[in-house]
């Protein structure tokens, strides 16, 4: 099938989003800042802006897939360098980086891709990095009841890089640990070593 207009494209947007209203608001916002959108290159810019924010705020639903831990696997499972793309709730500017997520299984193991999906689920909303980190850890604790969870997020906040203090390249690290990953010094050290080998 050939797509003829952008209306044919299925857009990522949060549930209930009104893209026409967002486009009008973006046009008014830019006009108030003295940015004209009347050239061939910019006449659709308010629409693009609305669609860009809608996409950055659109969570993707997913099925939680767990498997019985039949082999009794009892070592850490760690997925490193999961991309993080979120928006800081103060400036609505992106913060981007990586998350390292691990858990110590008990009765069930989790489909590995779900560790990346849960990061995305909590990232696609106005956030602070500390809350994002904690929410991923709490979700894993609640859904999987493992013997421990570790989440480390490393991100650059564009509101700190492109404006204000303009600290380009500054990276913020946050962590949320629970169960044995928090309380057992050996497991904690093993998780942190797996995060930064
Ligand atoms: N703790 C935390 N702070 C964040 C995060 N993202 C952005 N911020 C900070 O939120 C703060 C908002 O502070 P304000 O003083 O109200 O905003 P501002 O005047 O724009 O601050 P400056 O960026 O210092 O110019 C800033 O210090 C940001 O760096 C985050 O994920 N966690
Ligand atoms: Zn900010």
Report on the architecture of this protein.
This protein is of the alpha+beta class and 197 residues long. It has two domains: 6-56, Orthogonal Bundle (GTP Cyclohydrolase I, Chain A, domain 1), CATH 1.10.286; 66-195, 2-Layer Sandwich (GTP Cyclohydrolase I, domain 2), CATH 3.30.1130. The protein has helices at residues 19-32, 45-56, 112-123, 129-144, 158-161, 179-183, 185-195; strands at 66-68, 77-88, 94-104, 108-110, 126-127, 148-157, 172-178. Strands 5-2-3-6-7 form a five-stranded mixed beta sheet. The protein has a two-stranded antiparallel ribbon with strand order 1-4. The longest helix has 16 residues, at 129-144. The model is unreliable at 1-8 (pLDDT under 50). Zinc ion is lined by residues 88, 90-91, 93, 157, 159.
């Amino acid at each position: 099938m050939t797509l003829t207009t952008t209306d044919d494209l299925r857009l990522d947007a949060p549930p209930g989003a009104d893209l026409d209203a967002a486009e009008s608001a973006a046009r008014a916002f830019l006009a108030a800042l003295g940015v004209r959108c009347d050239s061939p290159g910019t006449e659709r810019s308010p629409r693009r802006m609305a669609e860009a924010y809608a996409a950055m705020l659109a969570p993707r639903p997913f099925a939680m897939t767990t498997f019985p831990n039949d082999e009794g696997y009892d070592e850490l499972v760690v997925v490193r360098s999961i991309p993080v793309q979120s928006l800081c709730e103060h400036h609505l500017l992106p913060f981007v980086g990586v998350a390292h997520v691990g858990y110590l299984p008990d009765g069930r193991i989790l489909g590995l891709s779900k560790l990346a999906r849960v990061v995305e689920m909590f990232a696609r909303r106005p956030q602070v990095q500390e809350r994002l980190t904690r929410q991923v850890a709490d979700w894993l604790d609640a859904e999987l009841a493992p013997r421990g969870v570790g989440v480390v997020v490393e991100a650059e906040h564009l509101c700190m890089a492109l404006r204000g203090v303009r600290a380009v390249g500054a990276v913020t690290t946050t962590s949320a640990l629970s169960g044995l990953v928090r309380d057992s010094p050996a497991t904690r050290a093993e998780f942190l070593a797996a995060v930064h080998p």
